[in-house]
Design goal:
The complex is a heterodimer of chains A (485) and B (122). Chain A has one domain: Sodium/glucose cotransporter. Chain A contains 22 helices and no strands. Chain B is mostly helical and 122 residues long. Chain B has one domain. In chain B, strands 1-2 form a two-stranded antiparallel ribbon. In chain B, helix 1 runs antiparallel to helix 4. The longest helix of chain B has 38 residues. About 10% of the residues of chain B have low confidence. Classes of the chains: A mainly alpha (485), B mainly alpha (122). Chains A and B meet through helix 6, helix 10, helix 13 and helix 22 of A and helix 1, strand 2, helix 3 and helix 4 of B.
Chain lengths: 485, 122
């Protein structure tokens, strides 16, 4: 591997990000520009930006690593991530766009007319966002360590500082262009090596036995139905609970364009996941020796040099490194912007100045966590965040859009119970591992925490004497009816 | 908040009906419009649940095929068993297909709603 070339690639991505961010800075002037890009972003740009920020370290490096490590089980993750957008489209995209709110806490407060429900939602958003930034920073650390033997903390600090600075400087407008660019960079960075490696492997005299490289036990038929089902449920519902995903819909001009944007996003992320899956399949053929925990996540970086020794391999590696950095930057930037929006409106005055201060605060916490913890599998860490989001936020979000009798008390109870149940399950599982029959229920809790949170919300709302907000009916009508055109 | 149009209507409801808060911008104010809006919400929910149901059925069928037909492991394309290829790439067309179907249906529902409302205004 050529460390100089890889570092140049990182520098180029950082440079391009700064330049495009600076361009965005020149044209973002008002508070509304900072928070939601003034709602004038075209569907194609918006879809590229949404896809760009959605495709994180977890899928860029982690997916091929997981397919290498544990086989076809790994394919469920990208399928769930893509299908998560189908649920966003079906249940939340257009209504949320019409709500006129800037952030999820804004929406919950307007819908339930309660400051308390707002504060609980803000806390859940912050927790989800922070947990999601941590694996991005870990990924940056791993990448720099593999390609240039630089200590992992350097990569984490680099990404955190860049993201905080970019968000503070330009807000959502700058971030939109940066992320649209980063989607196409990420796709290219995996597509080119995937095609070249596939041709090399297909044309070369590599003697492989498909049934040894792709054994049936690690294949689609060797899966545990409960684990796969519970995971898929969490990934499907988790997407809508991610703070940086929803804030994007506020940048579409109308409810109808929010829907078109979502369809484009589904196609764009699906194409990326298909390419990433190709890398995973190729990894099983070319680099079976890397199938060890901790090492597997580096396979996308190592693969090109394995197949093409010499300059071509080095060039391809540099391209993959650039794409990986785009992944860390895009996701953590999107999260930082939306979390900074939450903090600046909840804690401070909601002005542009407070947004900048919040962006710095938001980036520091996950950096501290990342420096204090060891990277686990990237896909597993990201997957856990989805389970948490699906348990804590998604049920309440769905009910508040579709059920007029939801009350503030019901929403708070649902969010708290969902978050606590999911958090406890993970903590107990991490502490004692399997406990006989309960082991799968603790490892993949979504199948019971999501129904539990939903049931608690519904029951508490129905027994709440204060009743639903008087204007709930009118608010729902506004969410679900198109504007005059 | 965007400044929308607030429609004021008088004498449409029963005399002396209690005032229910302030109308939100763009919110329906009279009963007929509220009924249309409720009907639209219901049909959108039905469409969404129907689409979700169809998607889940397709996922279960594909998953069932992958687990219950061992022959798929034996067929090898480009050095990879067909079952792996189906699992890796087979689900995305279904996701995109249902997404497109839903958007068409949702737009149709909204067109119908607009037509009803305009007819009502004439």
């Amino acid at each position: 591997m050529n460390a100089v070339l890889d570092l140049v690639a990182v520098a180029l991505v950082v440079g391009a990000t700064t330049l495009i961010g600076a361009y965005g800075l020149r044209i973002s002037r008002t508070t509304s520009d900072f928070f939601v890009a003034s709602r004038t972003v075209r569907p194609v740009w918006n879809a590229s930006a949404i896809s760009g920020e959605y495709l994180s370290a977890g899928t860029f490096l982690g997916l091929s690593g997981l397919v290498l490590l544990s086989g076809a089980e790994g394919f469920w993750f990208p399928i769930g991530y893509a299908a998560g957008y189908l649920l966003v489209l079906l249940f939340v995209a257009a209504p949320l766009r019409r709500s006129g709110a800037y952030t999820i806490p804004d929406f919950i407060e307007a819908r339930l007319e309660s400051r308390r429900a707002r504060r609980v939602t803000s806390a859940a958003c912050l927790l989800i966002g922070w947990l999601y930034i941590v694996p991005q920073l870990h990924g940056a650390g791993i990448t720099l360590q593999v390609v240039a033997d630089i200590p992992p903390w350097v990569g984490a600090v680099l990404v955190a500082v860049l993201v905080a600075a970019a968000a503070a400087a330009g807000g959502m407008r700058a971030i939109t262009y940066v992320q649209a660019f980063q989607y196409w960079l990420k796709l290219t960075a995996l597509l080119v090596p995937a095609v070249l490696i596939a041709f090399a492997v297909g044309g070369g005299a590599r003697d492989i036995d498909p049934l040894v490289v792709f054994p049936a036990e690690a294949g689609p038929s060797g899966l545990d139905a409960y684990a796969a089902g519970s995971l898929l449920l969490a990934l499907l519902l988790g997407t809508m609970g991610l703070p940086h995903v929803l804030v994007r819909f506020y940048t579409s001009p109308t409810g109808g364009s929010a829907r078109r944007t979502t369809v484009l996003v589904i196609v764009m992320v699906s194409v990326f996941y298909a390419v990433s899956s190709v890398i995973g399949l190729l990894a099983r053929i070319v680099a079976p020796d890397l199938a060890r925990p901790g090492l597997a996540d580096t396979v996308a970086l190592v693969l090109p040099a394995r197949v093409f020794p010499g300059f071509v391999g080095e060039l391809l590696t540099a391209l993959v490194v650039a794409g990986a950095f785009a992944a860390f930057l895009a996701t953590s930037a999107g999260l930082t912007v939306s979390l900074a929006g939450v903090i600046s409106q909840d804690v401070f005055s909601g002005s542009v100045r407070s947004f900048r201060l919040s962006a710095l605060l938001v980036a520091l916490v996950p950096l501290a966590i990342a420096l204090l913890t060891q990277p686990a599998g990237l896909v597993a860490s990201v997957g856990a965040v989805f389970v948490f989001a699906a348990s804590a936020l998604s049920p309440v979000l769905l009910l508040s859009i579709w059920w007029s009798r939801l009350t503030a008390r019901g929403a708070v109870a649902g969010m708290v119970i969902g978050a606590v149940a999911c958090g406890l399950a993970f903590l107990v599982h991490a502490a004692v591992g399997g406990v006989g029959m309960a082991a799968p229920l603790l490892a993949q809790p979504a199948a019971w925490t999501i129904p539990l949170a939903t049931a608690v919300s519904v029951v508490v709302s129905l027994t709440d004497r204060s009743g639903a907000p008087v204007r709930a009916g009118a608010y729902l009508a506004r969410l679900h009816t198109p504007g005059r055109s | 908040m965007s400044a929308g149009r607030v429609r004021v209507s008088a004498g449409a409801g029963k005399p002396g009906a209690p005032t229910r808060g302030i109308a939100l911008p763009g919110a329906p104010v009279d009963d007929v419009e509220a009924a249309y809006a409720r009907a639209l919400r219901r049909s959108q929910l039905r469409l969404a649940l129907g689409t979700l149901f169809g998607f889940v059925v397709v996922v279960l069928v594909l998953y069932g095929a992958l687990t219950l037909i061992p022959e798929l492991d034996q067929i090898v394309w480009f050095g990879v068993p067909l079952s792996w290829l189906l699992h890796a790439f087979g689900f995305y067309p279904a996701i995109a297909g249902f997404a497109i179907l839903y958007v068409r249906g949702a737009n149709r529902n909204e067109r119908r709603y607009r037509a009803l409302r305009e007819e009502d205004e004439r």
